[in-house]
């Protein structure tokens, strides 16, 4: 077995009297897609924000490639190769694809003492990276607002990959998408995984998780209910664990097993 | 491992399967040309020129001295519009611009005339104080998370009140004159007063392209004796603002800060720094305006700059910027200022009642906002 890219051990996070996370452990291997499942309020968001440096854990250890780290900011996490694509904050719709792609890391061309945004390079790289992800842009200065929701996620993923992400955290990338766009995003995940990047895929949709996941960790009320390998677990079991094994039991018959 | 995957994603197996969405019509070049922030301002500029050329051609409006007349007014609007434009694209407003103009002017006159410091020192102090107040504006907006509209509205009153108080408590009046006399020969004052390229206009007059005074104390001199330095300031600031916004890394950060501050922060854009710097730039532009005005009039008055903040914002909006930030153009804002200058002075040349200017202002503002909303929908694909 290869060594994990990132490992989080017994993470606890308290917000005042509220215990949002109460001992969550997860590890991500190179080239695997690790699905993090959980219902609303299970602590998924808090957990990935801890992983990406937004929150500091109250207790617990974070190990990146075996070394213990403490992220002071999202920038720290990014430098360690942990990139996060947030569901609604991935892109700025009024800005062009190129401007979005390079936001915060713009290439510089010097003319004498002056430093300019190197649009020639930026546009060429953006077009190429988009093409690799299967999106043919009309032009690199087309506004991101003209892209579909799935394409926006893909641009954000391509950006993270291009800037050297080793672990890619995707926060519910499919939750607002239609069937076809979801398929596009899932195939993008497969593409990224093939490069040896570890993907953390957060979702509450068991079907989406089973389509691309290698391992599945279920969160419920701030705790991990264990990690299952692909093939070891049935959709119904995941579903039950997410719901805490209760309320959904009666619905199963009429809903055909999965939600 | 992946044998299960294709079942769930039938349409995306090919490498470029996502490419062309057949429901998105290709965009015509014309429509693409329309989708730019300056569009409204370009149309407006053409319309305004055609209109005044039709009704006021023989009034001297388009003679050299007439051009200088509305050119200076347009330049005044442009100087403050550049600052307001970059700030608005960064997602914030500054309503204290007008009060800042009065405040900086009084500081310069007070220091140089009343307290007899050198003029260059007075100017530097005014700029330093203005930049500090701009930074304070920005800091308060960032730290409190309040809308900049409210924070700078507070400073609109605070600065105006302070200006009148300082002026009256030190000199017992609200106008301080005599700046021109103390500014003569000053190493810095020339940068804000007087005219440039005088020799060019003498030459133009000599070859007969522009007229000369035939009588009076200035007989024999060209009717236009140079380009007012304020116009030079306007051109320099517009060029600087445009290049900064469209051609540099910092410009991308301005767009990002106004487009979605949180998304920008997540990718490492120093949003707070960008916004505070833009508040300072807005204050800088207001002080450039104030200094030029003080040097031109030779005096400072506590009521100078009244309503200028709104005129700056209107110029910017006519120029195609969105009030919500993240989108706009410095060139557009400059054209908005030009429309302003031409109309304000053009109504005078055409002999139209000047109160109609405000009617025009309100009407064109409304039209610009409606057009901008429409263009925004085209860009973002919102319904």
UniProtKB/TrEMBL annotation, chain A:
Q: Does the keyword ATP-binding apply?
A: yes
In Swiss-Prot or TrEMBL terms, this protein is called ABC transporter ATP-binding protein
Q: Does the keyword Nucleotide-binding apply?
A: yes
Sequence ranges assigned to domain ABC transporter in this UniProt record: 6-246
Keywords of this entry:
ATP-binding, Nucleotide-binding
Alphabetized CDD domains for the sequence = ABC_Carb_Monos_I
Pfam families noted in UniProt? ABC_tran (PF00005)
Report the GO molecular function annotations.
ATP binding; ATP hydrolysis activity
UniProtKB/TrEMBL annotation, chain B:
Which GO molecular function terms does the record list? transmembrane transporter activity
Question: How does this protein sit in the membrane?
Answer: Multi-pass membrane protein
What the entry lists under InterPro entries is as follows: ABC_transp_permease
State if Repressor is listed as a keyword: no
Spans through the membrane: 39-56, 68-90, 97-115, 121-142, 149-168, 188-211, 223-245, 276-298, 310-343, 355-375
Q: What is its main location?
A: membrane
Gene Ontology cellular component annotations, sorted alphabetically = plasma membrane
Keyword tags? Cell inner membrane, Cell membrane, Membrane, Sugar transport, Transmembrane, Transmembrane helix, Transport
Q: Where in the cell is it found?
A: Cell membrane
Q: What does this protein do?
A: Part of the binding-protein-dependent transport system for D-xylose. Probably responsible for the translocation of the substrate across the membrane.
This chain belongs to the protein called Xylose transport system permease protein XylH
What organism is recorded for this protein? Aquamicrobium defluvii
Organismal lineage = Bacteria, Pseudomonadati, Pseudomonadota, Alphaproteobacteria, Hyphomicrobiales
């Amino acid at each position: 077995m290869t060594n994990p890219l990132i490992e989080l051990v017994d993470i606890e996070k308290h917000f005042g009297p509220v215990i949002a996370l109460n001992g969550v452990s997860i590890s991500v291997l190179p080239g695997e897609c690790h699905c993090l499942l959980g219902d609303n309020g299970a602590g998924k968001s808090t957990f990935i924000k801890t992983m990406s440096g937004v929150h500091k854990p109250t207790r617990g250890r974070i190990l990146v490639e075996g070394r213990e780290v403490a992220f002071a900011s999202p920038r720290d996490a990014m430098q360690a190769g942990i990139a996060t694509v947030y569901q609604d904050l991935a892109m700025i719709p009024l800005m062009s694809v190129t401007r979005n792609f390079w936001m915060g890391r713009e290439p510089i061309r010097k003319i004498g003492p002056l430093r300019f945004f190197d649009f020639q390079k930026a546009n060429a790289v953006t077009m190429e990276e988009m093409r690799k992800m299967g999106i043919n842009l009309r032009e690199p200065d087309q506004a991101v607002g003209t892209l579909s929701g799935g394409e926006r996620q893909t641009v954000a993923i391509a950006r993270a990959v291009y800037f050297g992400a080793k672990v890619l955290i995707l926060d519910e990338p499919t939750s607002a998408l239609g069937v076809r766009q979801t398929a596009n995003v899932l195939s993008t995940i497969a593409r990224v995984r093939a490069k040896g990047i570890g993907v953390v895929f957060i979702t509450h949709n068991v079907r989406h998780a089973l389509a691309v996941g290698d391992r599945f960790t279920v969160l419920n009320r701030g705790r991990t209910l264990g990690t299952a390998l692909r093939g070891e677990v049935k959709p119904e079991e995941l579903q039950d664990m997410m719901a805490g094994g209760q309320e959904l039991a009666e619905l199963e018959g009429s809903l055909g097993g999965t939600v | 491992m992946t044998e299960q995957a294709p079942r769930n994603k039938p349409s995306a197996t090919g490498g470029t399967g996502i490419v062309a969405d057949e429901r998105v019509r290709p965009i015509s070049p014309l429509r693409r040309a329309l989708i730019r922030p300056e569009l409204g301002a370009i149309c407006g500029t053409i319309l305004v020129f055609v209109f005044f050329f039709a009704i006021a051609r023989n009034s001297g409006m388009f003679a050299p001295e007439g051009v200088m007349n509305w050119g200076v007014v347009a330049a005044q609007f442009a100087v403050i519009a550049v600052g307001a434009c970059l700030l608005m694209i960064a997602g914030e407003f500054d309503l204290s611009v007008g009060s800042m103009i009065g405040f900086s002017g009084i500081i310069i006159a007070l220091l140089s005339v009343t307290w007899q410091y050198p003029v260059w020192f007075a100017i530097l102090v005014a700029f330093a104080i203005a930049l500090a107040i701009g930074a304070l504006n920005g800091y308060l907006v960032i730290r409190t998370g309040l809308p900049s509209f409210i924070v700078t509205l507070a400073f609109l009153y605070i600065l105006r009140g302070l200006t009148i108080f300082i002026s009256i408590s030190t000199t017992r009046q609200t106008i301080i004159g005599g700046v021109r006399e103390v500014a003569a020969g000053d190493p810095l004052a020339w940068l804000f007063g007087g005219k440039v390229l005088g020799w060019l206009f003498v030459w133009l007059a000599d070859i007969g392209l522009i007229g000369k005074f035939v009588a009076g104390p200035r007989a024999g001199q060209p009717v236009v004796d140079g380009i007012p330095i304020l116009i030079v300031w306007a051109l320099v600031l517009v060029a600087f603002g445009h290049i900064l916004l469209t051609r540099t890394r910092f410009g991308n950060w301005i767009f990002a800060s106004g487009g979605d501050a949180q998304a920008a922060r997540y990718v490492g854009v120093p949003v707070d720094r960008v916004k505070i710097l833009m508040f300072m730039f807005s204050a800088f532009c207001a002080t450039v305006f104030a200094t030029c005005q003080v040097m031109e009039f030779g005096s400072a008055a506590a009521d100078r700059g009244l309503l200028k903040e709104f005129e700056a914002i209107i110029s910017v909006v006519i120029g195609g910027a969105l009030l919500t930030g993240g989108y706009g153009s410095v060139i557009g804002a400059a054209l908005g200022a030009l429309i302003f200058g031409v109309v304000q002075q053009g109504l005078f040349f055409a002999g139209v009642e000047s109160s109609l200017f405000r009617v025009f202002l309100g009407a064109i503002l409304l039209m610009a906002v409606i057009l901008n909303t429409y263009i925004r929908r085209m860009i973002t694909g919102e319904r």
